[in-house]
Amino acid sequence: MNLGQYLDKEEIVLNAETIIKLENFASLLHEWNQIHNLTGAKSLDAIYVNIVDSLYPLTFIKKPKTLLDVGTGAGFPGLVLAMALPECEVVLAEPLKKRVSFLKYAAIEGGLSNVKVEAKRVEFVVHDAFEMISSRAVTNTKLLLDLTKEISDANTAYLFYKGSRVFDEMRDVEHKLEYDIVQKNQRNYLYIKGQV
Questions:
Q1: Do the Cβ atoms of 32 and 38 come closer than 8 Å?
Q2: What is the DSSP string of 11-71?
Q3: What's the CA gap between 186 and 162, in Å, rounded?
Q4: Beta 187-195 vs 177-184: how paired, if at all?
């Protein structure tokens, strides 16, 4: 299957230019991954599955104007979301040097003027409150909320890509949060809509 077919299957609607950017990113990641081992997704198909996983929340979230992605790694979900949301200012916080090099290169290659890569841990990022903070497989929800409290406010939404532990994690969060958990395949998307 090509990427367009994967996207159609999940009813993710993107323009042709964005799909080409995503395919180019997938090829670039596939190439770099063979040398630098950036992600467990070793084939183009596996990368496409990760791209679809990154983009699926666009079917139910309110699209932000500013987005911080915590621990972007090989680009999931932050860099992929940046391609699909060209009007959104996206900051990628990633402390590991080889991943930072890849993200910077991929952003330049993809002509992504809306992306800034911060080569640091999220607690050292200085910025006005973001409209949305995303993260995939970084740490537990409570810690993510704590680590980002200086760069969020009551209007900040959170989009965390989680596995089955998300239900336990939400029991550990003291704040009264308004949230949805959208389940798709093995993924639980935790969408927190700002604090009540």
A1: yes
A2: T----HHHHHHHHHHHHHHHHHHHHH---S--SHHHHHHHHHHHHGGGGTSPPPSEEEEES
A3: 9
A4: antiparallel
Predicted confidence (pLDDT) per residue in 22-59, tens digit: 999 999 999 999 999 899 999 999 999 999 999 999 99
Residue 112 CB partners (closer than 8 Å, separation 6+): 21, 79, 82, 83, 86, 90, 106
Task: Look up the CATH number of the domain holding residue 127.
Answer: 3.40.50.150
Q: What type of residue is 105?
A: Y
* Reduced DSSP (H G I as helix, E B as strand, rest coil) percent helix, strand, coil of the chain, to 5: 45, 20, 35
| Listed residue (70, 66, 67) closest to 122, CA to CA | 70
Instruction: Provide the number of structural domains found in the chain.
Output: 1
pTM of the model: 0.95
Q: 74, 38 in Cβ contact below 8 A?
A: yes
Domain residues for the domain of 76 are 3-195
For the range 144-148, what are the long-range contacts, defined as Cβ-Cβ under 8 Å and sequence gap of 24 or more? 144/70, 145/173, 145/175, 147/70, 147/122, 147/123, 148/68, 148/70, 148/122
Report residues of the chain scoring pLDDT below 50. 196
